[in-house]
Amino acid sequence: PFLDRVVAKDDVLLLRGSVRFYHGRQLHPREYVNLGADSTGFVGGRVLSVYPATEGLSFKVIRGIIESHLDGLLPLVREYLPRKVLKAAAVPSLPDALRMVHRPVSIAEAEHGRNRLAFEELLFVHMLHVRINHLAREARAGIKFSNRRDLTSALRAALPFTLTGAQTSAIREIVADMCSERRMHRLLQGDVGSGKTVVAVFASLLAMENGYQAALMAPTELLAEQHHRTISALLEPLAIRPLLVTGSLNAAARTEAAARMAEPGPLFVVGTHALIQSATSFAKLGFATVDEQHRFGVEHRAALSAKGDTPDVLLMSATPIPRSLALIGYGGLDVSTLDERPAGRQPVTTVMRREKNRGKVLDFVRRETDKGRQAYVVYPVIEESEKTDLKAATTMFQTLSAGAFAGKTVALLHGRIPAVERDATMRAFRDGSIDILIATTVIEVGIDVANATVMLIEHPERFGLSQLHQLRGRVGRGAEASYCILLGDFGPDAAGRLNVFAGTEDGFEIARADLAIRGMGNLFGEEQSGEATFRVADPIRDERLSVEARAAAEGLLATDPDLEMKEHAGMRGVLSARYARALQLFRVG
């Protein structure tokens, strides 16, 4: 009945799809275009541009309008991008691009024309963000530190490992910011275990050797304690004793901490939200690091900055995003990226197992704990529901404790458990008192437990790829072989997605795949995506174009920050017409 309504006898159809065999050959079209009985002008083998039909306007009508007016309109189209920019990006002029997408002679030519339109969108968005960064830096008079190298050189000499090239580059970028007259506001992003903390320590020491205090704020007490231990070990050869400030300090410890923070002179403070309480004050805060920055609200990050007189700020994120996308998503921030894996980091073997192999998988987990290792078992929900058939953490805790893991020390962890109890459980797991931790994603970002070698994830299809990557990052932190097991019966689409995850430990590759599935909006949210919306460009697919567009934007605005030169008048006009925010950023309109 449907075909009777949309296809008549003698209509000419163009179809694109796949041929399958089921009781003979079948065509499964993904797209089709009905040219109607009158296909005058259509030449077989020619590439035909397809336009989305709307109510009252069929594809054929839209195509006819464009065909009849294209030759007359193209001579009226004026190029507004500088010739040098087009040449550097190897994209055609706007008139040529429009002809290529509406009347292509080949698929390759249509793609070439599309690339020009995509490049233009990316260029304008990058220009907005470069301008935002420039104005923000101009408005932020900050501390001009001197790169004395007293403490930083001593730390480099004392390190028991060699910094990666990415760490060295990030430190160089941060030092350049700190030694300028403008206040730093930079994002340091990197994969799990990429060495962000060490970079933050180098920056903190630069502030300290200039007589300032440095602070690192973490979202939980456990993470703050871990940072304190790690940083204390790094700085022990320098005879520097970092201070730990959390909400659970007793009265005597709080008094001692307040006294040390009130003393003028260099100090390294590690803490939680306790650092931004009204009762907490710094004598001379010059550098602030916020770890897991997405776990803090804007007001929390601002409150830490307000504890000093325009301190430089470093935000750290363990969710890796390709740099070109980060520059779009985090407008107003400079971005440093750690995309190298430090030497010696153990690879994690990732496997997919079906439900029928549950018994063997649980036996494997038990054997690992028999060797003295520890394991995580993660579920997507806390409690079972009639609406789904998902296994739940609470139910499986009871089932496994009495069954496959009987005789083992098993604990339960999820978001509804009070924070004090959660922290106590994680400390017990960290200290080796718990063999197996059954949990939800509350452990996604947590403490390092070098003895944990197994991450078993049930219903992995219910998690995003980046979320799975964060969970896998909880193991492989010690010297022993580690494993991530994805257990469940999932369909072909989910299996394909999970195969991408199982095939690589590169967080940036996983982020690309995740973003291709979920889109940019879910990554940055409405507030941060802002004007980074695209009609033609796909920042994930067009990553190379985005890199070229960023370079072009930086070059253009370095020589003409307000786009006041005559040859940039066209760009000014397009920016003001397309982006209302451009009226605030450039002297246009």
Would you mind describing this structure in some detail?
There is one protein chain. With 589 residues, the protein is an alpha/beta fold. It folds into four domains: 2-76, no CATH class; 83-139 and 548-585, no CATH class; 150-338, Rossmann fold, CATH 3.40.50.300; 348-504, P-loop containing nucleotide triphosphate hydrolases (Rossmann fold). It contains 22 helices and 15 strands. The strands form three sheets. Strands 5-6-4-7-8-3-9 form a seven-stranded parallel β-sheet, sandwiched between helices. A six-stranded parallel β-sheet has the order 10-15-14-11-13-12, sandwiched between helices. It has a two-stranded antiparallel ribbon with strand order 1-2. Helix 4 packs across helix 5, helix 5 packs across helix 20 and helix 7 runs parallel beside helix 8 (196-208). The longest helix has 33 residues, at 107-139. The radius of gyration is 29 Å and the shape is flat. The two termini are 55 Å apart. The relative contact order is 0.11. Mean pLDDT is 87; it is low at 522-532.
Helices and strands in order, then pairings?
Layout lengths: L1 H5 L5 E10 L3 E12 L22 H15 L9 H7 L4 H9 L4 H33 L10 H9 L6 H14 L6 E6 L5 H13 L4 E5 L3 H15 L7 E3 L5 H12 L4 E5 L13 E6 L7 H8 L6 E6 L5 H7 L4 E5 L9 E6 L4 H13 L3 E5 L14 H10 L7 E4 L5 H12 L5 E4 L12 E7 L6 H8 L9 E6 L4 H11 L4 H12 L1 H10 L13 H17 L9 H10 L3 H4 L4
Parallel strand pairs: 3-8, 3-9, 4-6, 4-7, 5-6, 7-8, 10-15, 11-13, 11-14, 12-13, 14-15
Antiparallel strand pairs: 1-2
Helix pairs in contact: 4-5, 5-20, 6-8, 7-8
